[in-house]
């Protein structure tokens, strides 16, 4: 979901690595939002087996897929720091203008969808009244537009908090880059931001109350991480990757324990997510490859459009397929060998992905391509 188109000077090898990271990340975003896998094993009498199987799906959704957005943010700031060094601080204004342009387009689309399309379809009850003052407008804009429909669907969120977060991180990254012109100050600021963020996340893991997923404090930590990866990319060794992955698995175990013990759950404000996203980036940033799969290039180059459109497509798929399921008595859980698979969410998820890919491919051939590529 890197939004600028000024990457021509980046060598082919690095472009492939970035494409691969973005392709993996957008697949994880789709799995998290669509959650197409809902499987149980009713014929197995041992209670522990079903618990383990269910927890494995929870690990996929809550531990693996959620490193996607932080990975996008690291890559975005990683490229930004390179461009800032290459073109100077004038690039800050160019990037900010592009980000504002794209953000205004997509958040406007979200407002229109929520307050115009939904009432016309009579598909859901609007739970948020239209803003009546400037503070309400700003709040809705910062979280990516209105969301959460009171309907029988599992759809209704806005993913555009990512765009407002990217604007905020671009501003903070510029201030960070200015401060880090002093190398000693760079180390101090980086260590301070990373350590304080990790402590903050760890404390909140054991406290009541969650860090809302769209809040900027979830993502500030990725500014120094991106800068350090950019500065020390050539010095990354397998040992560092092993340490990062070990930290990721260790704190994943902690998350599983806390979640099963009834503690409230943070989406992005967790130490495991920081370790996981950083481990993914560091493991692939220097990966040596000679050819790029067409699927990787497609997913990477259209990641912004996929990210923006898939929730709309999912909404309409859910809206029109659920009555068909009821009409033809298609059960929610269908038997497959020893398993019971939720055919409804699986079919909605697969069709959503297919239609989303078709839409972004077509839009990528039109003047609207700047909003999907």
Textual characterization of the structure:
There is one protein chain. Strands 1-3-2 form a 3-stranded antiparallel beta sheet. Helix 1 crosses helix 11, helix 9 packs antiparallel against helix 10 and helix 12 crosses helix 13. Helices cover 66% and strands 3% of the residues. The longest helix has 32 residues. The protein has one domain. The radius of gyration is 21 Å and the shape is globular. About 4% of the residues have low confidence.
Attribute tags:
373 residues; 66% helix; 3 strands; three-stranded antiparallel β-sheet; 3% strand; 13 helices; mainly alpha
Any low-confidence stretches, pLDDT <50, length ≥5?
A: 4-14, 150-154
- Tell me the strand order in the biggest sheet: 1-3-2
What is the number of domains?
A: 1
Order of helices and strands: HEHHHHHHHHHHHEEH
Determine Rg (CA atoms, Å).
21 Å
Number of strands: 3
Number of continuous helical runs: 13
Helices and strands: which structural class?
A: mainly alpha
Mind sketching the topology for me?
Elements: H1 12-34, E1 39-40, H2 47-64, H3 68-87, H4 90-121, H5 134-142, H6 161-179, H7 183-205, H8 222-232, H9 238-260, H10 271-284, H11 294-301, H12 303-327, E2 333-336, E3 339-342, H13 343-363
Antiparallel strand pairs: 1-3, 2-3
Helix pairs in contact: 1-3, 1-11, 1-12, 3-6, 3-8, 3-10, 4-6, 7-8, 9-10, 12-13
């Amino acid at each position: 979901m890197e939004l600028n188109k000024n990457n021509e000077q980046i060598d082919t090898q690095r472009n492939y690595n970035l494409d691969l990271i973005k392709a993996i990340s957008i697949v994880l975003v789709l799995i998290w939002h669509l959650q197409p896998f809902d499987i149980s094993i009713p014929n197995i009498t041992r209670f522990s087996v079903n618990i383990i199987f269910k927890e494995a799906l929870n690990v996929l959704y809550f531990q693996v897929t959620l490193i996607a957005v932080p990975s996008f943010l690291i890559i975005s700031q990683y490229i930004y720091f390179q461009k800032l060094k290459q073109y100077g601080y004038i690039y800050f204004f160019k990037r900010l203008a592009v980000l504002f342009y794209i953000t205004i387009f997509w958040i406007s689309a979200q407002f229109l969808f929520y307050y115009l399309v939904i009432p016309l379809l009579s598909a859901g009850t609007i739970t948020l009244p239209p803003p009546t003052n400037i503070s309400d407008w700003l709040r809705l804009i910062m979280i990516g537009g209105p969301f959460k429909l009171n309907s029988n669907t599992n759809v209704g969120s806005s993913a555009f908090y990512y765009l407002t977060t990217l604007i905020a991180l671009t501003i903070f990254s510029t201030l960070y880059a200015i401060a880090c012109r002093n190398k000693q100050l760079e180390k101090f600021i980086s260590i301070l931001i990373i350590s304080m963020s990790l402590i903050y996340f760890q404390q909140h893991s054991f406290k009541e109350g969650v860090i809302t997923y769209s809040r900027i404090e979830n993502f500030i930590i990725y500014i120094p991480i991106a800068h350090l990866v950019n500065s020390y990319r050539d010095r990354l060794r397998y040992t560092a990757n092993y340490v990062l992955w070990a930290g990721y698995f260790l704190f994943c175990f902690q998350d599983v324990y806390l979640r099963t013990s009834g503690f409230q759950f943070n989406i992005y404000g967790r130490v495991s997510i920081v370790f996981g996203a950083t481990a993914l980036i560091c493991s692939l940033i220097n990966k040596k490859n000679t050819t790029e799969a067409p699927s990787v290039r497609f997913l990477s180059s259209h990641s912004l459009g996929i990210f923006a459109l898939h929730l709309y497509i999912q909404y309409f798929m859910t809206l029109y397929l659920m009555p068909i399921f009821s009409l033809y008595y298609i059960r929610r859980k269908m038997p497959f060998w020893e398993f019971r698979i939720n055919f409804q969410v699986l079919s909605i998820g697969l069709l959503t992905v297919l239609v989303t890919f078709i839409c972004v491919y077509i839009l990528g051939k039109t003047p609207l391509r700047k909003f999907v590529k």
